[in-house]
Fold this sequence. Notes:
The protein is mainly α. It contains 15 helices and no strands. Helix 4 (67-95) crosses helix 7. It is globular. The relative contact order is 0.13.
Amino acid sequence: MSERxxxxxxxxxxxxxxxxxxxxxxxxxxxxxxxxLSSNRAITSGEVTIFPIELNWDAYKQVFSDQSMIQSLGxxxxxxxxxxxxxxxxxxxxxxxxxxxxxxxxxxxxxVIIITMFFxxxxxxxxxxxxxxxxxxxxxSLILPGLVSPFNLIILISFFNNIPSSLEESAEIDGSSHLHxxxxxxxxxxxxxxxxxxxxxxxxxxNGFQDSLMYITNPDLYPLQLKLHxxxxxxxxxxxxxxxxxxxxxxxxxxxxxxxxxFATVPILCVYPWLQKYFVSGVMLGAVKG
Length: 290
């Protein structure tokens, strides 16, 4: 067998394996979409797999007609954007000084940061702290505790350290300040890691509900994932079902749950293609002349 034929067989096997793996990963989400679009009879009889049976949009109509769900979506979008912006600002402000070898106490700061990755105060002390600070039922209780992720901070520090120091030295010779160097040189060269960390923060905030479960009792401040959690716990299914007209067939809880899961997942999925263009390599090619 020629080398070309063997390479082609390997490519076919590789593509087949990757396609099956992707299908395996997508199967739960496809099943959820299929359940949300299937009829009550098909769902209760267990006929639904990854394709809808007897197409039915009533579950989505019910979800979109719930004003509290729409309000939670808007609040979650604003909360995610604000959290991502603040987290990136504070992470950059912490990472850039820690790349300076002449910073006094630099090693001590790094040790303190690393320790927090292995040990935490615990849920009860954290709740008592939030309560004593008067942040119960406050949006700040959902932002401030996770303002800087030690893991993301170390990633950003490592990336900044890989940027040639000759760029900063040239800027200093030209009279550039540290802030100007950071904004005009370091950050433009760091767009791939910046986009990646922003995505980490955004997805973490979008999917988080445990903090809101502990600190938020005001329904106006319920994030979308907390509403979804309540639905999974069967606290809201009856409320949504009661909103249906008297002449319409009641929806199954499974279809409402599935439609809400899709409703809560699609917005954050739309962020990935927008950030994909920043996941490129070689942004520093030609930045430093030999």
